[in-house]
Every structure is written in C-alpha cells, then in structure tokens.
Amino acid sequence: MTIYTMHPVNSEHLADVIETMKALGSPEIKACFDGEAYWALEGSHRIAAAHALGLVPVIIEVDPEDVIFNADIESNDLRPGGYYTAQEIYDSSYGGPYATPTQYFFSTGDEYDA
Fold first, then answer.
1. DSSP letter, residue 19
2. How far apart are CA 31 and CA 13, in angstroms?
3. Tens digit of pLDDT at every position of the chain (114 positions)
4. Model-level pTM?
5. CATH for 2-105, options being 1.10.1200, 3.30.70, 3.90.1530, 3.40.630
6. Residue 69 main-chain phi, psi, to 5 deg
C-alpha cells in the first residue's frame, strides 16, 4: 500500500508522535484513493511515525466530494475549523507551489512486494 503525505515532517514533533503511537498503535488516516495510491488528507507525522514503527495505518477512504470537518489540517489556503470537501483539501495541499508530497510504502501482506 502506497500513501502520499502532504507536508514534510518536523523531527522533534515526529519523535513525540512516535512515543505516543507506541502506546496507542496504528493511526486512522483519512485519504483518497486514485486507483494506485492513497493521498492522505491529514496525518503526515502519524504516517511517518507508523512507517518508522513498522505499523500499517488504518485508512478511512473518502470520496473527493465528501465533506470533512477540518479540525487541525492547515494547508495552503484552508484553515482549521472549517468544512471542506476532500477535493478542496487535496487541491490546497498537493496542488500548491510548495507542495512536497512524501511517498511511504506499507506492506499489508495482501500484495506482492517486488
């Protein structure tokens, strides 16, 4: 399973998230699927922490037209506390001039790992 994240991670924050995840286990992540990969709409640090710990995130797949409450996602032009479609979050986060998606591969045991 391939997941792209929308933001680079801060190493200090990542260390804190890793410690928390050791106690809580795999994170749930909202993401859109394009037929080949998941594009996370949140949780860049949680995905990086899961990868570092060898955990597989639980994907909550959303459709582009789904409306999502944006509690803590801050992207190029969206602010926390609003309601946005998954497509608006995607466009704002991955479509901007400073977009820096990071690719993570997670082995789920369901696919052939070449």
1. H
2. 21
3. 999 998 889 999 999 999 999 999 999 999 999 999 999 988 999 999 999 999 999 999 999 899 887 665 555 566 667 788 888 888 877 776 667 788 889 987 765 443
4. 0.82
5. 3.90.1530
6. -75, 125
